[in-house]
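Hey, quick one: can you model this chain's 3D structure?
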Amino acid sequence: MPSTSALSLDPATRRASIDIRNPAFYRDPLATYAALHAESPAFFWEEQQKWFFAGYDQVNGLLRDRRFGRQILHVASREELGLPEPKAHLQDFDRLEAYSLLELEPPAHTRLRTLVNRAFVSRQIEQLKPEIAALAHSLIDGFEKDGEVELLKAYAEIIPVTVIARMLGVSVDMGPKLLDWSHRMVRMYMFNPSLETELDANKASAEFADYLKSIIDWKRDNPSDDLLTHMIATEKDGERLSDDELISTAVLLLNAGHEATVHQLGNAVHALLKTGTSIETAFASDLATERTIEECMRYAAPLHVFQRYALSDLELEDGIALKKGDKIGLILGAANVDPQKFSDPLTFRPDRNEGAHVSFGAGLHFCIGAPLARLELKLSLPILFERLPGLRFRNEPQIKDSYHFHGLDQLELAW
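Sure thing. Here's the predicted structure for all 415 residues.
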């Protein structure tokens, strides 16, 4: 029975135990993923009591498989599936989730995504280049003379939240409060959140929704050239977004628009410095920069797991039988290091050109903000290294004790 210090796996039954609180796992999940790839890329995770998939072709295929969905209650009742009633203390959090683009299935998803998508196509995002570059330079101006910085709070957090707030038409001065609400809400997506986490996430959800409701009411009378005004005014087939849909979409864009990018920016700097990568080579041209960014997202993805419901009773090709309503886990971080897809996958190679990673998902729910995230990384990383030659770790980076997010608590640098 192969094992690492965090993993115990029986290949014959494909049953695995993974200790997500073991530092050997959350600090370096890639080592555990390598063991899974070697023995059983599809496995039943005992602690989670569901099937998980780690192979690139499996994950990529299941993300696109319309037999699975982000929702289940549009095709079955709670009673039919034996699901518990919603928790009363999560009412405000659940209300935001109920209208979230991330959770919806067609036709509701199609309608909502069509209304939002226009702001996130590449040609629209490209117009933000000067603004993002200017913001990166101004932040570095503020700490360059110090010779040291904690990069997450001084740089990585500020860029994405400022950009998405400006796009939506929300006051940039609200940045710290938006970050606070977001951090408290996304803790709900960790495995097995505590009651304290649930209560706090619900409180943050209520405060966030109340704030956005007041902004939306004001913008109805004072329209301007921003995404929130666009979403308020745009119709599709004679329908407009309801207040609940507007609020949920704005919350999703603010949360997803910075939470993952913060961690990706920190993870990328960590990877580049830890592997001793030649910065001059990594950012030598636009093509080199693009490949470096994609390799950072493959090797050091911030979000490692998406989950899906089986929308009917079905059997997968490898003999795994699922009942309607069963949940499965798709490990994006593992798919990105599948040796069947990527050569020498645990090696960070900035010039790698072996096809797409799945850090943005795939299929219907492919990340709507991917062009924005890529542009923010493409600008903020080279500017950082160009402005601060000799950048190095001041202290050992602190990796978050959390799964299925993978990121840093602290990144202290010096130059």
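One thing worth noting: The mean pLDDT is 92.
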